[in-house]
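Example S7 (structure tokens).
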């Protein structure tokens, strides 16, 4: 039975708002608007229930475009429009118009932190049906035809309505019936009800593999849909055949992907086999269903390939192959592959008595065997290279690189040697390893300057000079000292820069980048004498500025690294920060997570050691930064607090007693958050909204300005929110208008009353 709605006047709505039966986001403002309407319209209209009879009668009393006299009665036209809009909204919240229940319902949903009721979906799914007439049967009928997101929104709206039915304001407005819709059933494949496992099958889920148990119910459900058996399971004596399993696999593949169909088949077979082994014969397996051709009996045995008579290798070459296989302990397969490659090379016209370029040889093999696979071609390349190196048939530079690799040359040294080999082979005429002397070395360095690879070339020449005794035969017996070429950085500076960078926390790649940058600076500086002495005595900033002015393009990519070097070397390191830095480097923390550079730069302006820092220092500095720098500072503070997890740092007593963070998230900094709140006060306010936190920061800011508390104080919460403290704040604060301060104080009072027991 539909409850009749009692007509309501403006005075009735005001009384309901005062009693709290009508939800109001701002009670004081709507009461002020109603009092203003009372004065403007008169007592008769204010008590007339016909004002809210319909939207038309409301518009007659409160026209959208007011006349001049009406606007003057309210003060001005903008204030009138605010008054009209607020009264209209509260009339909807009070249930004055039964045709619009959504405003009140959604307001109560927001107050209760429930999902909103979607007006568009409900009116589309239930056309012409009011919410108070909605029954469970209607909801079930409409829900069955929905899919996807629309079904979820529909169900969420119904759930919110059920939770709000007993609210006195909804009951008074008669927007909903007392009959709840209740939970709606779970569907599968659109509108089919779930099929649950019978009890005998559900009991054995613990015996199945985890993957099979997780999908057993769905696999059983599909079997019921495909007609293998009923919802109660197979009948006694039933047995699955190959045809049944194949049909199930094919039908499942039409609903899901191939891999999921395989999974459902395995899960079903496992479930049935554990329930009763007679349900699944041994001949019925998932692999047999998925790969039937594997189990088919071949019609006739495959014909064996006849051994072809291969052309023999020359005697000398065959002897080399046998010697190579014996000395290198090569198996029969590797030896056969080598012979196969050598036959193709002979067929291609290569004389194997001379040195052979490996790339040319492999091109011939690929031309002779165009259909060979890439993996096989790579295997042939490896076998042929090993043989040519063993028999010294590779070109001189390839032989040199191969032997250098055998004696342990790796990494950057091998790259430098390879780079020098490339330059030597590009020279006109080609420079062989045995031809390397001082003159040819200078030619290679000049050629490297054009390519920008001077450093690698010089490193390769030095390495080559050191290999003369290690690799005899390819290089002259006499050791030729490759002199330092012009532009090479002194070793003492390299070692000092390396030690300084590692002490600062640089990785191996970072140290290498710094050395490369300083080498470029040294090469482009006209006066090399300025680089004498320790790196602390070198006037880095003057050298960098003059070099950049003379060679801006050459030093453009090194400018940032060079300026960072000048700043780090010229920066004094107090003992406390230096000790903490060494502990961090020893702990293996990467430079990206090292906060020392960021924090020390700010701390040294006030001569603060790391243990002298506190949260207010970090908080106040963060507030002075622009947003992008706030992110950098917040990350540095978080990394600094994370150092407490390192035993060697914590035991050394280099950190403050309390953490510096957390810092406010970027974009969430409150207007009055000039100082961090006391930790006990902050803990008590955890989970409160932005308005309450803003009020708390305003209170603490005022107390700090009054001189009641100082940095590091953590007073009792009861003292902070005491009534005399709040009254004094209202009287003496100078940060904002009295009305705004009153709002903040009122919020603190409300919070205090809600936390009486805790405080």
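Recovered sequence:
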């Amino acid at each position: 039975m539909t409850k009749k709605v009692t007509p309501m006047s403006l005075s009735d709505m005001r009384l309901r708002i005062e009693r709290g039966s009508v939800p109001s986001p701002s009670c004081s403002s709507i009461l002020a608007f109603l009092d203003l309407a009372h004065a403007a319209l008169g007592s008769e209209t204010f008590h007339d229930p016909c004002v809210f009879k319909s939207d038309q009668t409301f518009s007659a009393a409160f026209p959208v475009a007011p006349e001049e006299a009406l606007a003057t009665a309210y003060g001005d036209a903008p204030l009138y429009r605010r008054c009209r809009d607020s009264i209209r909204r509260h009339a909807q919240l009070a249930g004055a118009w039964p045709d619009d229940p959504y405003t009140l319902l959604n307001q109560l949903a927001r107050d209760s932190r429930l999902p909103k009721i979607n007006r568009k979906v409900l009116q589309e799914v239930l056309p012409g049906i009011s919410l108070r007439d909605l029954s469970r049967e209607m909801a079930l009928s409409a829900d069955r035809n929905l899919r996807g997101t629309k079904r979820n929104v529909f169900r969420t709206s119904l759930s919110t309505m059920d939770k709000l039915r007993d609210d006195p304001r909804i009951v008074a407005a008669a927007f909903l019936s007392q009959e709840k819709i209740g939970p709606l059933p779970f569907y599968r494949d659109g509108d089919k009800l779930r099929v649950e496992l019978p009890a005998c099958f559900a009991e054995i889920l613990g015996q199945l593999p985890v993957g099979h148990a997780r999908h057993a119910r769905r696999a059983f459900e599909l079997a019921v849909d495909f007609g293998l058996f009923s919802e109660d399971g197979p009948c006694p004596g039933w047995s699955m055949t190959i045809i049944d399993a194949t049909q199930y696999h094919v039908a499942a593949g039409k609903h899901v992907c191939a891999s999921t169909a395989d999974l459902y088949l395995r899960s079903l077979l496992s479930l049935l086999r554990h329930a009763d082994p007679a349900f699944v014969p041994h001949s019925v397996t998932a692999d047999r269903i998925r790969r039937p051709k594997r189990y088919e009996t071949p019609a006739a045995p495959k014909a064996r390939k006849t051994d072809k008579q291969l052309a023999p290798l020359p005697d000398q070459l065959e002897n080399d192959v046998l010697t190579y296989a014996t000395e290198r302990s090569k198996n029969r397969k590797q030896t056969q592959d080598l012979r196969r490659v050598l036959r193709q090379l002979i067929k291609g016209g290569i004389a194997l008595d001379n040195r052979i370029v490996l790339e040319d040889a492999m091109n011939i093999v690929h031309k002779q065997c165009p259909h060979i696979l890439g993996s096989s071609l790579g295997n042939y390349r490896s076998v042929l290279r090993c043989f040519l190196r063993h028999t010294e048939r590779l070109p001189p530079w390839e032989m040199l690189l191969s032997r250098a690799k055998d004696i342990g040359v790796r990494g950057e040294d091998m790259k430098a040697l390879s780079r020098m080999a490339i330059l030597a082979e590009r020279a006109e005429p080609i420079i062989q390893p045995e031809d390397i002397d001082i003159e040819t070395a200078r030619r290679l360095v000049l050629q490297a300057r054009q390519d920008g690879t001077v450093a690698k070339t010089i490193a390769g020449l030095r390495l080559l000079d050191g290999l003369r005794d290690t690799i005899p035969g390819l290089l002259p017996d006499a050791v030729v000292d490759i002199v330092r070429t012009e532009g090479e950085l002194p070793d003492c500076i390299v070692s000092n820069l390396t030690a300084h960078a590692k002490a600062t926390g640089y990785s191996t790649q970072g140290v290498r980048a710094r050395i490369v940058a300083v080498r470029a600076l040294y090469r482009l500086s006209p006066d090399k004498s300025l680089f004498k002495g320790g790196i602390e005595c070198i006037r880095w900033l003057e050298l960098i500025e003059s070099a950049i002015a003379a060679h801006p393009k050459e030093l453009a990519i090194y400018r940032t690294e060079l300026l960072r070097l000048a700043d780090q070397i010229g920066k004094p390191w107090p003992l406390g920060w230096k000790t903490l830095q060494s502990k961090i480097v020893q702990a293996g923390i990467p430079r990206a997570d090292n906060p020392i550079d960021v924090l020390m730069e700010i701390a040294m302006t006030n001569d603060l050691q790391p243990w002298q820092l506190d949260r207010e220092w970090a908080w106040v500095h963060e507030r002075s930064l622009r947003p992008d720098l706030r992110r950098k500072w917040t990350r540095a503070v978080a990394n600094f607090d994370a150092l407490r997890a390192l035993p060697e740092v914590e035991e050394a007593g280099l950190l403050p007693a309390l953490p510096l963070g957390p810092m406010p998230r970027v974009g969430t900094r409150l207007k009055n958050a000039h100082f961090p709140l006391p930790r006990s006060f902050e803990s008590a306010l955890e989970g409160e909204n932005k308005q309450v936190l803003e009020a708390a920061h305003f209170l603490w800011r005022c107390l700090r300005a009054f001189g009641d508390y100082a940095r590091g104080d953590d007073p009792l919460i009861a003292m902070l929110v005491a009534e005399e403290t709040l009254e004094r704040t209202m009287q003496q604060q100078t940060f904002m208008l009295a009305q705004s301060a009153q709002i903040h104080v009122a919020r603190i009072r409300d919070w205090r009353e809600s936390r009486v027991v805790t405080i």
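Notes on this example. Strands lie at 187-188, 192-193.
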